[in-house]
Protein: SGNH/GDSL hydrolase family protein
Organism: Streptomyces venetus
Amino acid sequence: MRKRSHRSRAVLALVAAAVVGVAGCDAVGGDSAAPSERAEPSPKPSPLWDRSPRSVAAVGDSITRGFDACDVLSDCPEASWATGASPEVDSLAVRLLGRTGAAERSWNYAVTGARMADLPGQVDRAVRRKPQLVTVMVGANDACRATPSAMTPVSEFRADFEDSMRTLRKALPKTQVFVASVPNLKRLWSEGRASPMGKQVWKLGICPSMLGDADALDSTATLRRNTVQKRVEDYNKVLAEVCAEDKRCRSDGGAVYDYRFGTAQLSRWDYFHPSVNGQARLAEIAYRTVTAKRP
């Protein structure tokens, strides 16, 4: 009895070893570790930048309000590059959210004539909506003053933008920010001065530091325009630097400044603000930046 029992236990042990060996090969194969020994994959960290935000709030100046895009000397928010509903523009909000989503979850707090000093107040209103993306386009009016000496100092421009970002971050730590550069005002002067009507409208007070005495080409006028242009470049440097300090902020890398606006992209009433076509180009730039893959 003892011998038979011993043989039975030996056979059972061999069968069990064979079963375990086959199961091991089938499950993990070759020299791979058994399932119990395999390391669990680490969960992927949430990306800092969501390329599909679900709501958009816009802050800024007349460009974001669609000023002179549809009618003379008036806002046209439906043509806004940021939040407008116009199918000809195909705004950033429409591209990201669809038409229904844009109508329900996008808001335009920009104000015609606004300067950087006005941005903290606009941001304070925008954060109440808890948007997932805030767009910023401001600075042209800081350069477009009665004279170059009246332009916003760069230090104040920086301080107000930093204040705006602090207001946003305090209320919404994870909201993303898209920052557009200030357009090339000297190029707008160069393109628009060919229009007699445009120059008449300029005399009403549109960007006098750059557009005043539009046909003057003497050294004084040239120095004035170059001074304004340098200030715009300084503003754009500030916008890029402050944005770079925030991990959830993307600037356009100077794309709006570099865009070669022609007469088709300029308002047919003032030859300075973007036309509907120009607003569509701004929407394209913003959409490319917001949805771009970044390492």
Observations:
- The beta strands are 56-60, 106-108, 133-137, 176-179, 249-251.
- The CA atoms of residues 26 and 110 lie 64 Å apart.
